[in-house]
Design a protein that fits this description.
The complex is a heterodimer of chains A (515) and B (606). By secondary structure, chain A is α/β, with parallel strands linked by helices. Chain A is built from eleven helices and 15 strands. Chain A is 29% helix and 22% strand. The longest helix of chain A has 23 residues. In chain B, the strands form four sheets. Chain B has a 15-stranded mixed β-sheet that branches. In chain B, strands 19, 20, 21, 22, 23 and 24 form a six-stranded antiparallel β-sheet that branches. In chain B, 54% of the residues are buried.
Chain lengths: 515, 606
């Protein structure tokens, strides 16, 4: 076959081909490289082969490598371990399993699963101490209600605390509306309050007479995540009464409840208890992937961060709106944001290199954050272990779901957290084909939150509104609006350049002040 | 479905929605397999490991069983076979005359040699040529280099302008690395250093080969490639131009008083490649018979061999052959569904889906398969191969091999009548790919490929975005029907020699039309190795002047595989005298590309 005829073939193709056959190659040619790259990144990352990018799985290991190799190809330096590694290991709460455990109060010995259990919110431990009753263990309730006086009310004691919160005679909350328990009834704040008062162990009990379907349970809770560093047991109401029979106080669970419903206070029960729990924790890690683009001159020590989470829900093991067992590809959430971070690295490295000699510019840190879906673990870990002091981080950009822009609308949260951000976005809005909705609510949680918590101004880009495929197996690649996702990249390319060059930083503004 | 508003703003999403789930799936496979992240799917790379794992995943998702059985009798998705070696260069050092040389800039250790250390006095042995024209040799009889470090010039004797004295302006085969290293090694030196000769008229004269380059070992001692500046430093500033001229005139070896110490660390790891396979069990009495559907998964990596545009750039191989690999993955899924819905009592042959490796380096995976068949080849009713189905133009799909069994053509045409594709039946075998080893074992075969070649073949431009997903998906649909028909036909197809039936086949190439002459005699016309063995070259002919030697094997013509002599003639008949063609040649197990200037046929030998 002659080479000369071969060379002609692609040109002839455009005219000769049936319209449908050439559709995709033609669209790629028409919309350019950025749209093609956006498509290829998202299509790769949401392939079923990657298993929904669940932290700790082989699919996530490939995802981490994918992001790392693209950072390397873009020309970024390793961000971590003094510039020697692109990875920052994030410890993840693995599954916790209960081993040996026991509870003895005087002559009463708990029978596991029957009248007593261990809460996995607590830690392993073996303690013998006096029992003290601490009511509902509420630090600050309405109308000045508090279970504690403010000192170390439970120093060295095993605290006996009620689940739920003060209730009326029918066993319904006196604080909540329409009979709904308030946040004070949650496990975690109770346990943490008791620990803060110096308790060395906790026994959780269902209050007698409570009007709640869970009243008969052993209230261990279903948490699989440690919340306090002391062992936590749970017993039935009947078990508490058995224990109290041995007490010299001559009281009952109902009498204790009546007191706690009215006011707080700690009552020494005058009994010794021995509590033992052995909990094993599976250690898992996932990696944040970070690449650094070094800045210039006097500003180079400061950092602008651009991140997006690289993980998703796997087979829907948690967080799914459809349930377990089906692949959640997470094309919009957040292969789209991951692609944006990679593409910005590709664009900003040559931009930084082409700055005129002597132009001061901040360093730009590109982060593929891990384990967002499980609770912002990667971002939290980063802000506690930043590559440079967190005060040097002047702005954080977070992408989480930028792939399904409809009607050109993009919402941007967080503009109230930095001086000058709102005005700047108004200017950029005029130039972008997108319609920016920069509002003051911080109602959508993602990896920018831990940064704002450390007083780093942050902007969070996300589609407006969310779509029905969110956190379902239908969040697939073919539905992605690649053209507008590239518009998001274009917009934030300008924001990152401005953020790197602006002589003065965007002073942090507390978002609570602007509510 | 997308909301109407989003559809108008998201053209690719709209197109993918319109084109349907099969095109969407094909798109996913193509984009993933041709991603730069997969390293051009070169055997031995991380990317190829990932590509194999990817195919195994999707075969497993399709619900087929592992296709192979390992030595212990356990089911296995992989069939391993040896494929050369990979070299890991460690630290190295060279010193002498008070100088410590820098690896990478002054010299480069080569994979043509071994690891190890050596020190000794140096001896210059000219160009290291055993036998040149007019009695030229670099080696006086009885030359023993024991304990010496041998220094050898690259290329071959040259004139004052630095051009070959032998090759009419081009280096002849004598200039090759492999031959001179082997010749020097026979004299038992402690190490061999190849030096770029000063003044040579060649753009490579100031370049060093890449570290570790040359996977096929030619000597059991360290072999280094060195700049002439560094070599001169080791010899107290010796005038290497004068030394070169000494050898240009046939001078004897020169022993020096200088000593050199060198050390090379390298690890040579035999490379094990793997075919990936999945088995769809048949039904009833036919289940012991087999239909194979295969495609090669490997490609050229960074283009170190086989590239038409040179090494150093990623060759994604979207058409070649992510396109065929994707088809296999989809066919496994579709045929599994077809088998699951067969009526009770139906009979069907088993179907083995294979992703071959090592195709680009010479059909190694398919060759290994036919020589080590896990299922008897005589029970293999049909082999279907895809190689490049991603760039179909004008709906034209070529299907080769229809003459390899009676009634195969009729079956293909009957199934093809249902397809939107136009089926093009080629003359001859239809090209060189993994069906050939099966053909040689007399297994009937079909070979699907684009009917119209494109110029992105074996270049970095063979990218995913150019793939015609729609017609590739139509190819999948067509071959689902063809494979199903072949698997359920009451009578198995019986192999016949395809050429006998095909009067319009490749043997119609008339030598009368031939305007050029290559000047080389093929060895065995029908041996089982890929390409054409060269038994001898005509003195002064095109081949000899370009440096092609007896023992070489012609593998490629302008990047395209040379399958057999007749196909090679088809390539040649299209050239005119003076054309320069890139010919891929295997010499000493290594593929090199040689520019051959084609001479006119009627002047040859005059």
């Amino acid at each position: 076959m002659l080479l000369s005829t071969l060379i002609l073939a692609p040109a002839a193709l455009a005219f000769a081909q049936e319209p449908d056959s050439g559709t995709l190659p033609r669209l790629y040619a028409e919309h350019g490289d950025a749209v093609r790259k956006m498509d290829e990144h998202i299509t790769f990352l949401s392939n079923a082969y990657l298993g929904g990018r669940l932290p700790g799985t082989p699919g996530m290991h490939i995802t981490e490598r994918y992001v790392e190799e693209h950072f390397i190809a873009a020309g970024l330096e390793p961000a971590f371990d003094n510039g020697s590694s692109f990875r920052q290991s994030v410890p993840l709460p693995g599954a916790r399993a209960l081993g040996e455990h026991s509870l003895t109060v005087g002559s009463w010995t708990g029978q596991s699963g029957k009248n007593f259990g261990i809460s996995l919110s607590g830690s392993s431990g073996e303690v013998t101490a006096e029992l003290a009753f601490a009511g509902y263990s509420v630090n600050e309730g309405p109308n000045g209600y508090s279970s504690y006086s403010g000192g170390n009310d439970l120093e060295g004691k095993i605290a006996v605390i009620f689940r739920f919160e003060p209730m009326d005679e029918t066993g319904r909350t006196i604080w909540g509306e329409n009979g709904r328990w308030t946040n004070a009834a949650g496990f975690t704040p109770k346990l943490q309050a008791a620990e803060a008062q110096g308790a060395v162990g906790i026994i959780l009990v269902n209050p007698p007479g409570v009007d709640d379907p869970r009243a008969g349970e052993i209230p261990t809770g279903r948490q699989n995540r440690q919340r306090v560093s002391i062992p936590v047991a749970a017993v039935t109401t009947t078990a508490l009464d058995r224990m109290l029979e041995a007490s010299r106080l001559n009281t009952t669970s109902m009498q204790l409840r009546a007191g706690a419903d009215k006011e707080g206070g700690v009552i020494n029960l005058g009994m010794q208890a021995s509590l033992k729990a052995v909990i094993s924790q599976e250690q898992r890690t996932a990696d944040n992937v970070g690449g650094l683009l070094r800045g210039r001159g006097a500003l180079a020590d400061e950092i602008v961060v651009v991140g997006g989470h690289i993980d998703h829900l796997g087979m829907g093991v948690y967080g799914s709106r459809r349930g377990r067992g089906e692949l959640h590809p997470g094309a919009d959430d957040n292969a789209s944001g991951t692609a944006a971070v990679i593409m910005l690295a590709d664009r900003l490295v040559p931009w930084m290199n082409s700055l005129p000699e002597g132009t001061p510019a901040r360093s730009i840190l590109f982060l593929g954050l891990n384990a967002e879906e499980a609770g912002l673990d990667g971002a939290r870990h980063y802000v506690d272990n930043p590559i440079r002091p967190i005060e040097t981080h002047t702005l954080m950009i977070n992408f989480d779901m930028i792939g399904r822009v409809a009607n050109k609308r993009l919402q941007i949260l967080g503009s109230q957290t930095g001086e000058g951000l709102k005005e700047w976005l108004t200017e950029l809005d005029a130039q972008s084909p997108l319609e920016l909705n920069a509002h003051n609510r911080l109602n959508l949680g993602s990896d920018h939150i831990p940064f704002i918590g450390k007083q780093v101004p942050a902007l969070f880009a996300i589609i407006d509104p969310l779509h029905a495929d969110y956190h379902t197996p239908d969040d697939v690649a073919w539905k992605i609006n690649r053209v507008d996702a590239v518009h998001v990249v274009d917009l934030f390319e300008a924001i990152l350049q401005g953020g790197a060059l602006r002589p003065e930083r965007h002073t942090f503004l507390d978002p609570r002040a602007s509510r | 479905m997308l909301g109407a508003q989003q559809a108008t703003e998201a053209p690719l999403a709209r197109a993918l929605d319109d084109l349907g789930t099969d095109v969407q799936r094909y798109h996913e496979h193509i984009v993933t397999l041709a991603s730069p992240f997969l390293d051009g799917r070169l055997p031995g790379t991380d990317g190829m490991e990932l590509a194999k794992d990817y195919c195994q995943f999707w075969l497993s998702e399709a619900g087929v069983a592992p296709g192979f059985v390992d030595a212990s009798g356990a089911a296995n998705w992989r069939q391993a076979f040896p494929l050369g070696a990979s070299i890991d260069m460690g630290a190295s050092s060279v010193s002498g005359n008070g100088h410590q040389l820098a690896s990478g800039t002054d010299y480069q250790p080569l994979g043509l040699g071994s690891g190890g250390s050596a020190s000794g006095q140096t001896v210059w042995v000219g160009y290291g040529i055993e036998e040149g024209p007019e009695g030229y040799t670099s080696f006086p009889s009885q030359l023993d280099l024991s304990g010496k470090v041998a220094f050898v010039f690259r290329f071959e004797p040259m004139n004052d302008a630095g051009s070959s004295l032998w090759g009419n302006g081009r280096w002849t085969g004598a200039a090759g690395f492999g031959g001179k290293i082997a010749a020097v090694a026979e004299r038992n030196p402690a190490a061999i250093v190849i030096v770029n000769p000063p003044g040579a008229d060649d753009p490579r004269v100031d370049q060093l080969m890449a570290a570790g380059q040359g996977g096929n070992q030619a000597a059991e001692v360290p072999v280094l490639h060195m700049t002439h500046q560094a070599a001169s430093q080791l010899h107290a500033g010796m005038d290497l131009l004068a030394l070169r001229q000494h050898f240009d005139h046939g001078g004897d070896p020169v022993s020096t008083e200088n000593s050199v110490s060198l050390a090379v660390e390298m690890t040579r790891t035999p490379l094990i490649a793997e075919n990936v396979g999945g088995m769809l069990r048949g039904k009833g009495k036919l289940a012991d018979e087999l239909v194979i559907i295969g495609a090669h998964l490997d490609h050229l990596g960074m283009g170190d061999f086989g590239s038409r545009s040179g090494p150093g750039e990623l060759h994604p191989g979207a058409d070649d052959n992510a396109s065929g690999s994707a088809a296999i993955l989809m066919l496994a899924d579709k045929l599994k569904a077809s088998y699951d819905s067969m009526p009770e009592g139906a009979e069907a042959r088993s179907i083995l889906f294979i992703l071959f490796s090592g195709e680009e380096s010479g059909l190694n995976g398919s060759r290994y398969y036919v020589n080590n068949p896990p299922y008897p080849l005589e029970n293999t009713a049909l082999m279907i191969n895809f190689d490049m189905i991603g760039r179909i133009q004008n709906r034209r799909l070529q299907i080769g091999g229809t003459a390899s069994a009676p009634e195969l053509l009729e079956m293909v045409q009957a199934q093809g009548a249902k397809s939107e594709l136009e089926i093009v039946i080629p003359d001859g075998r239809g090209g060189g790919s993994d069906h050939l080893p099966f053909m040689q074992k007399k297994v009937p075969y079909l070979f699907g490929a684009i009917a119209d070649f494109h110029d992105d073949y074996h270049t970095p431009r063979d990218v995913a975005s150019k793939i015609n997903r729609v017609d590739a998906t139509r190819t999948v649909h067509l071959f689902r029907d063809i494979a199903y028909a072949a698997a359920t036909a009451a009578q198995a197809y019986r192999y016949q020699e395809p050429v006998a039936q095909n009067a319009g086949g490749p043997r119609s190439v008339s030598l009368g039309e031939m305007k050029v002459r290559f000047g080389a005699m093929p060895g065995n016309y029908e041996d089982s190795e890929p390409g054409i063995a060269i038994a001898g070259v005509t003195p002064g002919g095109s081949a000899e002047l370009a440096g092609i030697q007896a023992g070489d094997r012609l593998l490629r013509w302008e990047g395209q595989k040379i399958v057999g002599v007749m196909e090679w003639m088809e390539f040649m008949v299209k050239h005119k005298p003076g054309d320069i063609v890139k010919v891929g040649v295997v010499r000493d197990g290594e593929e090199i590309t040689i520019d051959v200037k084609l001479q006119a046929r009627d002047t040859e030998g005059k």
